[in-house]
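User: For my dataset I need records formatted as: sequence, then structure tokens, nothing else. Please produce one.
Assistant:
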Amino acid sequence: MHRVAVIKGDGIGIEVTEAAMKVIEAVTDRIEFVEFEGGFRVFERYGVPIRGEDIEEIRKMDAVLFGATTTPFNVPNYKSLILTLRKELGLYANLRIIPDLWNGREIYVVRENSEGLYSGMFRATEDRVIDFRIITEEGSRRIARFAVELAKNKESFITLVHKANVLMGDRFFRKTVIREAEKEGIDVRERLVDSFTIDLVRNPWNHGIILTENLFGDILSDLAAIHARSIGVIPSGNYGIDIALFEPIHGSAPDIAGKGIANPIGAILSGAMLLDYLGLDGWKIWNAVRSYVKVGSLTPDLGGVAMTRDVVEGVIEEIESEIDPLEWDEVWTDEIRISFIPTMFTK
């Protein structure tokens, strides 16, 4: 039995996380969900987005399923919950998979998850604020190794996106990545971030594993969302040494919260990545979602009129149609945990 921490958050985070949990439970009974509170409501009570004792309990879990939270920018001393979790749990690697579910293609963006301008280090005076962009050898080396292992798994190459012609930090990052890739014989193709954005729009499917630093990775993966038809279908994984956290990349969308029309596919596919990380068959969810979107009713962000629950029920029906009840006890015999790269890449 695998213990998975659940932080639903607020807004549509609650709805899509519950959707993902239902789909996961339709695939396996080997997951025990343990819920924790986090976000602005916790901050109002305790002065932090998540309590320290809850962080300690989450560290004991096998993985985390996260929804979405609203991060107000005008509240003194409030720090983003997801940034807090990434730091506290040591989640140094972010993998965003931008899927074309209708044509069986994906864009893979590997983003350094702990440094850069999101390091949280700054200096402020009355007339100036300086945010520090931190690039370290350790941080560069471990994200390079993550991308290298993924490229090996995919029998692919790395597209290294940087601004080394201007930024000293990117020159350092570039040097480290190339050194690690050469050790494993992985081809690295370099692109400057500004010109690469144009190519990512025009020619998105031929870049192997896109690797970049924190801020660039955030922007590029959101830009690439146009090729998924909706940001609501994009999953992601945040990987550390001992634990990983999975979340859809969309926000809390308070304007549609409670209306029952949120797209749950990003959260559902994040659940698939979670199962893959635990050594279970997350690919069954990927296959079910791909089948469903071709024949089922879609939510408004994809031009349809479906409710969240319609999509959940449709995906579960696809899962159940692929599983022979007589073989149920044999489906989950292999529970060897993998701690690094999702197994879906070899399916």
